[in-house]
Amino acid sequence: MYVSFACRLALAAVMALAAVAKLRSPGVFAASLEGFDFIPARLRRPLAALVPATELLIALLLALPATVTAGFVLAALFCCGLTAVPILVLARGKKVKCACFGAGEVPMGGWHVARNSVLLAAAGLGAFVALRLGDGVPARAPGIVLAVVAAGVLTTLTVFVDDIAALFESPALAGNPGR
């Protein structure tokens, strides 16, 4: 149950932060969708509103005890799409900036696939545990603290994946050989 609780907290936080970033600068997110040539142009504007609305819905479902399992299931379905997007971008050889958490300047890459796959795994694991053991809040303080810390680490790594990826990128690959 502690694993499910950690997944629940992390997913709720990530989805809420992503939604707030998109809603703070809706034009930035909408403009980023123009780079996705596999999304029909007529669907991009509705998608720019639908994505943050879905993220907020997932966060809300995960926050309410009666709807946690539904939140995990919706998060898993949503994360399937989120994982497919950078895979399609990479397969097509496109350079599309990731505006998942605001005005990102980093083009989508393998780190984005990994990030979204981890979120998908957290949603799947959380749903599995919630369906098997229930979706209540665990009762022992040490386990709760550990779940909160784990969720905080996962949330931080997820939100700052572009910055973390930059630490591992060589200056030559970044197009700045003089760095």
How is the topology of this model organized?
Layout: H1 2-24, H2 26-32, H3 41-63, H4 68-91, H5 110-133, H6 141-159, H7 161-168
Helix pairs in contact: 1-2, 1-3, 1-5, 1-6, 3-4, 4-5
Notes on the structure:
It is found in: Membrane. Its main location: membrane. One of its GO terms (cellular component) is membrane. This protein is mostly helical. It has one domain (2-168). It is built from 7 helices and no strands. The longest helix is centred in the middle third of the chain and has 24 residues, at 68-91. The N and C termini lie far apart (47 Å).
How large is the radius of gyration? 17 Å
The H-and-E topology, N to C, reads as HHHHHHH
* Backbone shape: globular
Total domains, how many?
1
Question: How far from one another are the termini?
Answer: 47 Å
Based on helices, strands and strand pairing, what is the structural class?
mainly alpha
Question: Major sheet, described briefly?
Answer: none
Helix proportion = over 70%
Number of helices in the DSSP assignment: 7
What is the number of strand segments? 0
Strand portion = under 5%
Average of per-residue pLDDT values? 86
The low-confidence runs, each spanning 5 or more residues with pLDDT under 50, are none
Signal peptide: 1-18
Keywords: Membrane, Signal, Transmembrane, Transmembrane helix
Pfam families: MauE
Membrane topology: Multi-pass membrane protein
Provide a compact summary of the structure:
With 179 residues, this protein is mostly helical. The protein contains 7 helices and no strands.
